[in-house]
Amino acid sequence: MLQSARSVSTGAYRFGYQGQEQDNKMGGLGQHTTAQFWEYDTWAVKRWNVDPKGFAWESPYATFRNNPIIYKDPNGDIPLLALLAKGATGAAVDATIQFLVNVVVYDGDYTAALQNIDYKSVAWEVILSMNPLHLSKGQRLGLDIVGDLGINYLNGKYDNLEGDALSEQLFYDAIQSGATTLISEKLGSAGMNKLSSFLQKKGWHKYDIFKATGVRMREQADIRVGDKEASRAMPWRGRKIGKNVNQNTAVQARAAQVNAMGAKDIRIDQTQVNASGKQVGINRPDLQYTLNGKRYYEEWDTPSSGRGPEHEFRIKANDPEAGEVKLRILK
């Protein structure tokens, strides 16, 4: 019960007891709430109308089975055992997480993903979730994902989908909502790579895959290079990266600088090589060198070109252990 001079309200928040919408015009701040099937007086602890789904053993004006501590009645028709509702939510989250992981494990076979949900684990999660203190980081993220999917459902996004088409859309939407974190916790980096390959087969752009999974997908031509020793480094002095005089001058100056710093295996406009001396791609970084055991790459681009980020992405995909990839803009 709200008491005078002991409560504050900005008026912007419309909801009160058990999440029901307040109607402060009826009896003052917080005294009256409304829901789909009732008008509720928080002071009298009674409903203003007859319960549309009442039971013979209790008053038609009774609320929360006369126990508002453990029961909730968000719509005003059927009191729900709050702990059981929490358990059901936990079960839904656990089943969703298992489904998402299984989609990756079974290579996008949505039927197998559903059939191989461990329902004993789901049932156990019902019991665990009844504990008010039981809410792991994974469950919190799972709740966010289930909530997002629920909003999509209420907005009619899935109305015309069924079967694998529905499962696929649910999976994609879950990925967009952060499900990759849960998949990573269950399957590790190998699972992320497998998920990324699956999304690539489904036509996802490599930038979208990287945003979702943190994995940079390599070009097939780079993958076909395999694991072979790189050809020898060509003399870098006087070697050009293109027709731009300013960029050629800059790359020569930078190569001379890193050479003076003790850099090894300096290459200008040659196929990409990692710190171990292995060729890792057919792309040709403008400048690459090894310094203190780390491989560094530098790219020059013009303001109007816009190709620099693409080159940077490809270099990092080919050599995840690179020390740094610098992108320099020069007219």
Characterization of the model:
The structure is a single chain. The protein has 331 residues and is an alpha+beta fold. Helices cover 42% and strands 13% of the residues. The strands form 4 sheets. The protein has a 4-stranded antiparallel β-sheet. The radius of gyration is 30 Å and the shape is elongated. The termini are far apart. The model has no long low-confidence stretch (mean pLDDT 82).
Unreliable runs, pLDDT <50, ≥5 residues?
none
Described by the principal axes of the CA atoms, the overall outline is elongated
Gyration radius, in Å: 30 Å
Helix content: 40-55%
Estimated structural class: alpha+beta
Number of strands: 12
Q: How many helices in DSSP terms?
A: 11
Query: SSE string, helix = H, strand = E?
Result: EHEEEEEHHHHHHHHEHEEEEHE
Q: Looking across the biggest beta sheet, what order are the strands in?
A: 1-2-3-4
Strand content: 5-15%
Topology of this protein?
Blueprint: E1 21-22, H1 24-27, E2 32-35, E3 38-41, E4 46-47, E5 71-72, E6 80-81, H2 82-105, H3 110-115, H4 119-129, H5 137-154, H6 163-176, H7 179-201, H8 206-213, H9 220-223, E7 228-229, H10 245-260, E8 264-268, E9 278-279, E10 287-291, E11 294-301, H11 308-318, E12 324-329
Parallel strand pairs: 11-12
Antiparallel strand pairs: 1-2, 2-3, 3-4, 5-6, 7-9, 8-10, 10-11
In short:
This protein is of the alpha+beta class and 331 residues long. 42% of the residues lie in helices and 13% in strands.
